[in-house]
Amino acid sequence: MIFTILEHILTHISFSIISIVIMIYLMTFFVHESVGLPDSSEKGMIATFLSITGLLVSRWISSGHFPLSNLYESLIFLSCSLSIIHTIYKMGNHKNYLNTITASSTIFTQGFATSGLLTEMHQSVILVPALQSQWLMMHVSMMLLSYAALLCGSLFSVALLVITFRKNINIFCNGKVKNFLIKKFIFGKINYWNEKRSAYKNTSFLSFRNYYKYQLTQRLDYLSYRVISLGFTFLTIGILCGAVWANEAWGSYWSWDPKETWAFITWIIFAIYLHTRTSTNQSLQSTNSALVASMGFLIIWICYFGINLLGIGLHSYGSFTLTSKILNN
Amino acid sequence: MSSLLLNPHKALFTASSSFPLRSDVNAQILVASRRAATRIVDCRPRASRDSFEAEALPETNAKKKNANRKIILFGSSPPPLSEDRSGAAGNGRGKPGSEASSWGFFQKALKRALAVLSNLPLAIAEMFTIAALMALGTVIDQGEAPDYYFQKYPEENPMFGFFTWRWVLNLGFDHMFTSPVFLGLLILLACSLMACTYTTQIPLVKVARRWSFKHSAEAIRRQDFADSLPKASVKDLGIILMGAGYEVFLKGPSLYAFKGMAGRFAPIGVHISMLLIMVGGTLSAAGSFHGSVTVPQGLNFVVGDTMNPNGFLSFPTQSFDTEVHVNRFYMDYYDSGEVSQFYSDLSLFSLDGKELMRKTIRVNDPLRFRGITIYQTDWGFSALQITKNGEGPFNLAMAPLQMNGEKKLFGTFLPTGDADSPNVKGISMLARDLQSIVLYDQEGKFAGVRRPSSKLPIDIDGTRIVIEDAIGSTGLDLKTDPGVPIVYAGFGALMLTTCISYFSHSQIWALQDGTTVVIGGKTNRAKLEFRDEVNGLLDEVPELVSIDQNLNG
């Protein structure tokens, strides 16, 4: 009984804190750089991470099994992993303009999980015999970690595409300014390549706007590459753990179940992403791979949510139907 | 503007005329070297081989001829294995004699096939197509009768304007994952994997392993990351690099260090393990046996009677002559009444009656015996044992009843009065699991619930009934799969090599140029972290205040 109350409290705490954090980010975005607030938003994210983890732990204790048996729990786990990624990224780097993506992903998943759509799944349920296995922890947690990492990486790529093609659209629109902007763009690029060759040899003046934009796209490209390769590793391990578990439980390591098939499709798409990055043409490489990663974003959602909506196949533990509240309204 | 995005090199060269850069030549070489240096898995053996080789091995003059010859051998015609071993004898390309023409033709065809197959865009297109077909396979219902497709994709009203049942049935989309189209694409992808590994990745590893010093400061400055330390010794740099985990080689004034070589090997490992998985999967599909059986508690069956072969490589083994006896089947329940686990106590006997093995299996815990695996997958209710008015016990067979939803329901009927009359009346008993039986009287009204373990009697319409026992039957799946060890090996290798290929292979060259040390480095994956790391390491190199004549060691 204590644990249910604790769970309840932690759910509400995490949701409120992260809403506040998002508010702070939005305010710093519009009302430029209030001093005390970025610090408190960092602390807010850490508090969110701690409360979500506490929520999961209390569910674990109260139900006796690892908290990953239905869609609600997996969503909580997903938002937990997203906040982990946010924290790791924050610890490793000093620039924090990519917080908007990780933090807002966390709030969306957490919000959806705690919203009224899934109330019937909030209670912890007992595990059916097929789920009573050690593999449950390994397989499902790996898959959710990989989803979190791949979602982050794909969002970075989408951001890259938006920035790149927004530049294009702007330049297309202003005819007269076109040549001037083109020159700025090339100049910024040349100087950046020079800079890359020798970190200490700084050439002089730079076209500020395009230089920073270019640097941002380069950074987004690099970050999305690193995060997606990490997510790809986790995805590989998760799929293979699932295959071994299926062999233990049902006798066949691959039965072309819809969920398995879509996980494999996700794997293939991100393998294509990694292979397009080896092409030699530098800017084409980043644009092409960003396109593939954006496709991957959609496919992850189909794999995670779409199959559960259909509710077919051996993975039907995660299926749900929208509650009658929505339908009656 | 979009054309500019697509062709930045063009932009570079046009711009260089208006803005004076340090050197156009440098920029061009930068582009060329980056193209060569950053290519990891680009499967185009011919075009860039020479430039790459020129970059990586300018100094090893002694080995150059041999190395050149070896690499040219790969680049121009990947030879069959026998010729590779006789490489020392020179280009043993064509055998003398009358076999030369057919052998040479075969070689040329092989070379051309390899060149076509190791094209990376082709591989990417194959992967896309396979992904699209798999998505289609989940959307179209698999394994239904043709009638179903006639109705769902009618010709009169085609989906998207063209998709009718003809597409589905002729192309084999109703059994997508075993259809010729899909399997053919998988085979093509496997061939591309093999070709790419052979022609590109293995030579890359050979070149990466052959470490070489760079003897000119210009060559070093051309690297992705280059710097120079004004008053330093290359030996100090070497010591600091060793402390940071690099393997350092020092020869006179020049230094070469690398770290994370495993990151270069790992992609090969990934491809090889994928091939292993494909081989294992093929073996599974072609050579396995599968069967399922529902056995009431207390009965037995012979393994070989239940198994069906899956493909043309399926051969029954000695272990098929084993008899399986179900000693007991029981279930565990939660307090709420839900089933928590199914258990079957099985004994295996040889045909002459000797007990070979005994194990209690449950879901997620199968029985393995000499290549056969028995899984607990299902359960049923076989019979209900009752005594009626003290007579008996009678075994009443339970029949499964259809109900909406997933829960099972079994029922049986005990006739009171004349069993042969058309309006026979009796007592009905229903059960959802082996735990409690619900009884109804002759009019169909609810009479009571009894548990088999309690042995409490119940009086219905003058008959006294005691539920003695609920006899369940266990649903078992039997399987033998020769491909599983291979597939598991492939899985393990794939997991390991995918983790390893996350590491970055970093290389650093340095040259003592008077009192200055010129440093250049490159890495294939973690570019930004590499730069920060090397900056940090360079900060630690001590500055020499007084220059000694004995500086060069």
From TrEMBL, chain A:
A single Gene Ontology MF term assigned here is: heme binding
Subcellular location, in the record's words?
Cellular thylakoid membrane; Membrane
Report if keyword Transmembrane is assigned: yes
Major place of localization? membrane
A GO BP entry is: cytochrome complex assembly
Question: Which positions fall inside the Cytochrome c assembly protein domain?
Answer: 68-315
List the keywords (alphabetical): Chloroplast, Cytochrome c-type biogenesis, Membrane, Plastid, Thylakoid, Transmembrane, Transmembrane helix
Keyword match Transmembrane: yes
List the membrane topology term(s): Multi-pass membrane protein
Q: Name one GO cellular component term.
A: plasma membrane
* Domain of life of the native organism: Eukaryota
Report TM segments. Answer: 12-32, 44-62, 71-89, 144-165, 223-246, 261-278, 290-314
Q: Which InterPro entries match?
A: Cyt_c_assembly, Cyt_c_biogenesis_CcsA, Cyt_c_biogenesis_CcsA/CcmC
* HAMAP family assigned: CytC_CcsA
Its biological purpose is as follows: Required during biogenesis of c-type cytochromes (cytochrome c6 and cytochrome f) at the step of heme attachment.
Indicate the quaternary assembly.
May interact with Ccs1.
The family assignment reads: Belongs to the CcmF/CycK/Ccl1/NrfE/CcsA family.
Name of the featured protein: Cytochrome c biogenesis protein CcsA
- Which species is listed as the source? Zingiber officinale
Q: What is the lineage of its organism?
A: Eukaryota, Viridiplantae, Streptophyta, Embryophyta, Tracheophyta
UniProtKB/TrEMBL annotation, chain B:
* Transmembrane stretches, start-end: 114-140, 181-205, 268-289
Annotated compartments? Membrane
| Protein's membrane topology | Multi-pass membrane protein
InterPro entries linked to this entry? Cyt_c_bgen_Ccs1/CcsB/ResB (IPR023494), ResB-like_domain (IPR007816)
Under the heading HAMAP family, the entry gives: CytC_Ccs1 (MF_01392)
Quote the protein name from its UniProt record: ResB-like domain-containing protein
What is the scientific name of the source organism? Answer: Zingiber officinale
The record's annotation in Pfam families points to: ResB
Q: Region Disordered: which residues?
A: 74-96
Q: Which GO terms describe its biological process?
A: cytochrome complex assembly
Query: What keywords does the record list, in alphabetical order?
Result: Cytochrome c-type biogenesis, Membrane, Transmembrane, Transmembrane helix
Ranges for domain ResB-like: 122-383, 436-534
Q: What is its main location?
A: membrane
GO (cellular component) term, any one? membrane
Q: Which PANTHER family match?
A: CYTOCHROME C BIOGENESIS PROTEIN CCS1, CHLOROPLASTIC (PTHR31566)
**Keyword Transmembrane on this protein?**
yes
For whether the record's keyword set contains Transmembrane helix, the answer is: yes
